[in-house]
Specification:
alpha+beta, Aldehyde Ferredoxin Oxidoreductase,  A, domain 1, single chain, Aldehyde Ferredoxin Oxidoreductase Protein, subunit A, domain 2, Aldehyde Ferredoxin Oxidoreductase Protein, subunit A, domain 3, 6-stranded mixed beta sheet, 615 residues
Length: 615
């Protein structure tokens, strides 16, 4: 119950398709989605495997609440070894594809091997088939989606797949479903491309069963009321989306700007949620048309935007005169503040291209930002960029870069390496604002101390969604902590990381935790699933998952040396705002964090800790 108890295993090398029962012993220990699929991956691959080799595996996994009446129950994750980081990768997405896979009767799909030529898969309830993808290889996510629906004469199928970025193995390419929802981070799209797998189209008609229907509906109804009554999930996110944070973070002096040279962006208001909703002077219409929800979501934080048809990015491109997924905070920051660009419609266009071609906008924007600094320092020349004047603040340069990167053409090939490899090539690896090779999200670790520690210790490289201490340090959820203080942050980070691992494994969205605690989530899981699920057992589940991921990374060759931040955050103080004069206090926080985790001073989980958690 909650689980379908079925796994689909597809070997693209041999073309074989098998059904097998879900390992319920593992399900009771790791629940689903992130935790359970990571367990499968870790048991089945060599941690030192080349991420782009046929020996790596790619797992599409749902959680037990995916496809149910639980709010935001539309999530799925893609789990693999990431080519950007060489660490474990688990990238989470919303939309409708995850629920559709569950409706078809599958908890997860394990993709093995490599096809000899481009292929795509269809999963129609119990029937899975592998098809020739030559007609759609080299096309965008959007064209692939339309072609598959026409080819199979079913507008109700849901598609997840890669654009040309994944085909070209851009190291931060994404897997995009439902046109503009994405498993965006760590290069999972490159792994899919390395297997010559273009897309998976799913249609399910079976529904999802739960253990105790009456108790489950009561628990979900109560939890939905909590979301509705909360200022963030009931008002802020539906109205403004995640872009509600743009001005808030900027005023807190925590807005990384121009490759983290500054912590505040003078153009933040121009690209904010308020700006998106304000009619443009050029045509009198707003950038934002409406909000949009993923499957089962009562928050509806998604954005649908339309660019001014006379804007330079699309003036002669009628194929972009439609509405599509609008800017969310992370993309608006990475493409805007971090590059110094305050042209809202230009950022929307670049975000469209990221969706269309399958690029992670966070890593793309951060890589362009690093390249702009290299250009500013004279380490990259106009000749090397193919004539692009790669200056901070240039919307034209940003647009040219995104068009080249997805197609891996010209200077776009170098941008597709990610910021660490790019900066290392030009002799300045210190200018890559990344951890374990993955670029920072939209919060400065000097101004928000806890998030700096969360970046440094994240198992998948720099990430805000592995432990969103911003909730506490900036928004005061569940309680306010001082963002400028290091004291208490190791415990805060650990608590957020463990709880988030449990949420990710349930099949719901982490945004619910602006309002929910595990006291709200555990009753839903307990009513849906076999076994006994309490807030305490859910938290232990999250801790077990975190340690399991750490063990994999250690075996893959990562160590405490990788739990670090770029020199800029540790030695160059913030110049303005509340954090003026401060650097990140990682050296003070990291030893206590290891101690609280039950790890050695070198960041290795002790046998006692692993035994206690049954890892």
């Amino acid at each position: 119950m909650g689980w379908t108890r079925k796994i689909l295993r597809v070997n693209l090398t041999t073309g074989t398709i098998k059904t097998e029962p879900l390992n319920m012993d593992w399900a009771m220990k790791y629940l689903g989605q992130r935790g359970l699929a990571s367990k499968y991956l870790i048991e089945e691959i060599d941690p030192k495997v080349d991420p782009l080799s046929a020996d790596n595996k790619l797992i599409f996994a749902t959680g037990p609440l995916t496809g149910t009446a639980a709010s935001t129950g539309g999530r799925y994750s893609v789990i693999t070894k990431g080519p950007l980081t060489n660490a474990i990768a688990c990238s989470n997405s919303g939309g409708y594809w995850g629920a559709e896979l569950k409706f078809a009767g599958w908890d997860m799909v394990i993709v093995e091997g490599k096809a000899s030529k481009p292929v795509y898969m269809t999963i129609f309830d119990d029937v899975c088939e592998i098809h020739d993808a030559e007609p759609i290889w080299g096309t965008s996510v959007w064209k692939t989606d339309a072609w598959l629906k026409k080819q199979h004469q079913d507008p109700m199928i849901h598609v997840t797949g890669i654009g040309v970025a994944g085909e070209n193995k851009v190291l931060y390419s994404a897997i995009v479903n439902d046109l503009h929802r994405a498993a965006g981070r760590s290069g999972v799209g490159a792994v899919m491309g390395s297997k010559n797998l273009k897309a998976i189209a799913v249609r399910g008609t079976k529904g999802v069963k739960v253990k105790d229907g009456g108790r489950f509906l009561k628990a979900t109804a109560t939890a939905k009321q909590v979301l509705q009554q909360n200022a963030v999930t009931g008002a802020g996110l539906p109205t403004y989306g995640t872009q509600v944070l743009m001005n808030v973070i900027n005023e807190a002096g925590a807005m990384p700007t121009r490759n983290h040279r500054q912590v505040q962006f003078e153009g933040a208001h121009d690209i904010s949620a308020e700006a998106m909703a304000t009619p443009r002077k050029s045509d009198g219409k707003p950038n934002l048309l409406t909000n949009q929800a993923c499957f089962g979501c009562t928050i509806a934080c998604g954005r649908i935007s339309k660019i001014d048809e006379n804007h330079f990015t699309i003036k002669n491109k009628p194929e972009y005169w439609h509405a599509s997924g609008g800017l969310e905070y992370e993309a608006a920051w990475a493409l805007g503040s971090n590059t110094g660009v305050n042209d809202l419609d230009a950022l929307t266009y670049v975000n469209f291209i990221c969706n269309e071609q399958g690029l992670d906008p966070i890593s793309f924007g951060a890589t362009v930002s690093a390249a702009m600094e290299l250009y500013d320092l004279g380490l990259i020349t106009k000749e090397q960029t193919g004539g692009i004047e790669l200056k901070f603040g240039s919307a034209e340069a940003l647009v040219k870069c995104v068009e080249l990167t997805g197609k891996a053409e010209g200077f776009g090939r170098e941008l597709g390496l990610g910021s660490l490899r790019l900066c290392t090539k030009y002799g300045r690896p210190d200018l890559s604002m990344s951890v374990k090779g993955q670029e920072f999200p939209a919060y400065d670790g000097r101004s928000i101390q806890g998030i700096g520690l969360a970046y440094a210790t994240s198992n998948r490289g720099a990430c805000h969604l592995r432990g969103y201490t911003i909730a506490s340090e900036i928004l005061g959820i569940p309680e306010k902590t001082d963002p400028l203080e290091t004291a208490g942050k190791p415990g805060l980070v650990k608590a957020f990381q463990d709880a988030t691992a449990a949420v990710d494994s349930a099949g719901i969205c982490v945004f619910t935790t602006f309002a929910w605690t595990l006291n709200d989530i555990a009753p839903q899981v307990d009513a849906a699933c076999e076994g006994s699920w309490t807030p305490e057992s859910m938290l232990e589940l999250g801790e077990r998952i975190w340690n399991m991921e750490r063990v994999f990374n250690n075996r893959a060759g990562l160590s405490s040396k990788d739990d670090n931040l770029p020199p800029r955050l540790l030695t160059e103080a913030a110049q303005t705002g509340p954090a003026k004069g401060k650097v990140n206090g990682l050296a003070q926080m990291l030893p206590e964090y290891y101690q609280l985790r039950g790890w050695t001073a070198d960041g290795v989980p002790t046998n006692e800790t692993l035994s206690r958690l049954s890892v």
